[in-house]
Amino acid sequence: MTDARLRHGRASLALSFFVQGVTFALLVTRIPAIQDRYGISDGLLPVFLAAVPILAGVGSVVTEKVVARVRPRVVLRWAQPVVLLALLGVGAGSEVWEAALALGVFGLSVGALDASMNMMGVSLQRAYGRSIMLGFHAAYSLGGIAGASMAWAGAHWDLSLVVSYLPVVVVLLPVAFVGSRWYVEGKQEDEREQGAARGAAGSVSFKLLMPLCLVMCFAYIGDSTVSNWSAKYLQDVLGSSEQLSTVPYNVYMVTTLLGRAVGDFGVRRFGAVAVVRSGSVLAAAGFGVVAVAGGAWVGMLGFTMLGLGLCVIVPQTFAAAGRMFPGASDTAIARLNIFNYVGFLVGSPLVGALGDAWSYRGAMLVPMVLVLATLVYAKSFGAEPARYGGGHERPRTVDVG
Asked: Are 335 and 58 in contact (CB under 8 A)?
């Protein structure tokens, strides 16, 4: 029964990651349509775009406090429907204040969603006694590809935002809510730890967590560079056609999915430290290839390398935080998750400013160096996953809700 519950819990959490990937992709890939619908000026648009990750960071901080009283599965069960409804609200409004309200709700709830999903993923990985975190993030990548494809279809057929979003929300909302019945968490606390749960935040040393926070930030600077600048770089710097310039991000998403789909096997075989080091070197090499590329196809090779390299870092950073603070992993993950949004906020403006002031080729060297700096902090990824299960893969006792 325990094994079956773990399998059901793993599947239901993977479904939540997939739904979130679809939802987020539908939002970010339709930003031009959102701007047109609400008449948001180019000067005001960056304010809206920055507000979402800032509020998501707030949502992650709030989640840290909330999970001291209720389990992460409860937060996730209610945060995911709110995110979906907020997406629908973005598409259904007509006034700027309505867009601001819907995006504000989206940001706060997506912070709670990201934090609680990764808390549960780390908990389940502990219960399994082996690496499974990359599989959850592979489901997110698959959802991102599906969401981006649906967004492309909506744009291609000139569908309104509400027409594009409504069928997705109608299908995914009940699916996610019903699937939440099978959420499972590994039993992380004995009776002594439960009595000290409210004081768990004090047991997380920010000094110890900081290397992982920096790695998370660097990884998202790299990711946001690809998502925001790959098309412009290929077209303006490497001289590709407008149509071809859309390919690198799709290639990046597909290689991210493939890398995460097989990444857990690499972690089990070689350990988290080796996998993160390899991913960092490959991602840095990818940025280097992009920076020196003489044509569009070589540039796309660099973006392919980036997808395969960066994809392993974020899931393993969450897993490492769980191993580093096994008695307060929820607190550690909520704090670590904030640096997801810091990297997202910093990355795109940083590359844009350097590109305008210097050159976009030179700008690509900055995320290259930052990603390569992950090697300095590789030891923070701790022991191999098999060791924290006692070397066995037999599931532990679980807490089912």
From this structure: no
